[in-house]
Amino acid sequence: MSDGKLRPEDDGRDFASAAWSIPSYLLAGMILYGGAGMLLSRWTGVVAFTPIGLILGVALAVYLVYRKYGS
Amino acid sequence: MNTLTVLASGASGASEDVFTPPGLELFDYPPLIAGVSWFTKPVLLALLSTLIVVIFCWSAFAKPKLVPRGVQNVGEMGYMFVRDQVARPFLGKDADRWMGLLLSIFFMVWIWNLMGVIPIIQFPVASHIAFPIVLAISIYVLKIYLGIKHQGPIGYFKNMMFPPGLPKPIYVLLAPIEFLSNLIIAPFTHAVRLFANMFAGHIILAFFSLVGFWFVFEHLTPLGVGLGVVGVVMTIAMTAFEMFIQFLQAFLFAMLAAMYIGNSLHADH
User: Fold this and answer.
1) pLDDT tens-digit profile of B170-208?
2) In angstroms, rounded to a whole number, what is the distance separating the alpha carbons of residues B112 and B194?
3) Which residues of B touch A24 (CB under 8 A)?
4) Does any domain span residue A11?
5) Residue B98 CB partners (closer than 8 Å, separation 6+)
6) What is the pLDDT of residues A23-43, one digit of tens each?
7) Which residues of B touch A65 (CB under 8 A)?
8) Beta-carbon separation of B176 and A63 below 8 A
9) Domain count, chain A
10) Is the interface score ipTM higher than 0.95?
11) What CA–CA distances, in Å, run from B209 to A35, B216, B245?
């Protein structure tokens, strides 16, 4: 927060914004890297790229959430 | 009850004796005035809701007394709720400046949703996705405008896509996730969350009331009557539950709006 003071609500704010942002991050990770994996699968014909992309996307999103909101 | 009769007879269709659960035809309304194709029941209800919110706020806040009475009392309860639960946790000292918008959104969405359980009217406006989309897009445009205004055109996107404290190379992989999540998924889920809850709730209510109506009134048989009673009981229980969900979704919609506005006013940490 810009005003530098710690208010009692700040905890609640962090928790709520984490709780409502995490699903978007996970979805974004899956769509982005799962989609990239799917395109790669179509292009190369190697089916395995789709699940690899999906898992990479989720892993990256979890890492992002952990670094952003984890204490 | 006439809506149910129409529903029951319409849903049964060709074969009279078969119970057919209600489907998407619940959401199709013909134009109220012939020739004016956009003016349907949901549109009328949306206009009515606007009118209700305007009249309510006018009568509650136009001539405030020091000791609140009547409508002002109810209005101030709503105001306090939105201020303490929605605005202050996310906007802090800026909360009061945004109360007009947030209070309007909260009451508006709540009245939209309440239309789903008011007898005879019985249609939640937000179960047509166009209505929540318009609200979500308004908030989205406001969010980007405020972000650019308060953090600068480059600073806003930099703060959004490059959260501090991560090792440099990983930004290549994470910045697209941030971008997609904040600018595409977030507004989408903002609208869809409200729409899907109201849509599903309306179908559930219609289904249980149709079960009750069909098995108790239309087709009373010794075997079916138990099911019909279950349908009636579930209709009552689900109506109560639906009223809770309606309030919750209105609260969440306003809360997420406050969160997006707050994140645009100040960069994340």
Assistant:
1) 898 899 999 999 999 999 999 999 999 999 999 999 999
2) 11
3) 181-182, 185-186, 189
4) no
5) B87, B91, B258, B261
6) 899 999 999 999 999 999 999
7) none
8) no
9) 1
10) no
11) 42, 10, 18
